[in-house]
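JOB MANIFEST
job_type = single_chain_structure
chain_count = 1
residues = 318
[input]
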Amino acid sequence: MKKKIFVDGLSGTTGLKIHERLSLYSELEMITIDYEKRRDTQERAKCLNEADIVFLCLPDDAAKEAVSLVTNPDTKIIDASTAYRTAPDWTYGIPELSRAHREAIKNCKRLTNPGCHATAFVLSAYPLIKNQVIATDYPITCQSLTGYSGGGKALIEKYETNEGKNNYTKAPRPYALGLGHKHLPEMALHAGLSEEPLFVPILGNNYQGMAVMLPLHAKLLSKKLSAKNIHELISEHYAGEKFVSVLPYQEDELLFDGAVDITACNNTNQAEIFVFGNEAKGTAVIMTRIDNLGKGASGAAIQNMNIMLGFEEDLHLS
């Protein structure tokens, strides 16, 4: 029997991408709602409770309202908002972190899909904190270079307007300069930190694709590892994973004219981790690149759905 799927919030960037990916499945049956009734509470509740899995692609308050409408104990929810990313009774959706994380996803009924910045950061930091290389109160700073599609339809329109001079496309733009980005709580909690990192994201003039950079000083580490040692540790942690790859240490052939192409994972569910270092200076940087619309959003949601439904984890994903 086909599993029934309902996407609540189909018109947004993430909702459209999820629906596009779901269209590849012959194993699923989509529940649709009349456009005129998409805000009708009774009609939405009917669709929500009829589904085996619901994807919520809504603002936080609307996602909470949708969760409150689910009374069917068998309905599983994958929420793409930030509403439940630090909630103790919701499962966080990065299966690659550990066997326990993957098992929790397999058995959960309430899953919170990670944010894009948080996904790349947690993948970088978690192995080091788990292995006590970084103390939980390490003064972490990080930056992100990201495509503008993560800002949704309103920001996309600002970048893609052709009416006169467009200052949005003139140069990269650091933002969230109040140092309170909405992904910070989940970045700290799910990496295992006791304090939030100091995080400055930067918007680029690319539609999608991103990289998060985490610099480290060997003298501040709990275990005095070199950059190459750090690379070896992270490589071992993610060995055998289908969607997380640790690239060869300081391999120039992986660069574009000496630099990292942050769009190289676009249109995939891949996360690629680099480690660069200067042994003489005792410094290192971990850089994780993903597609903010793929592993950072819809791809991760589909991967988590596959696990929750008992499908092959990489079904219809690349």
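[summary]
The mean pLDDT is 95.
The chain has two domains: 3-114+296-309, 116-292.
exit_status = 0
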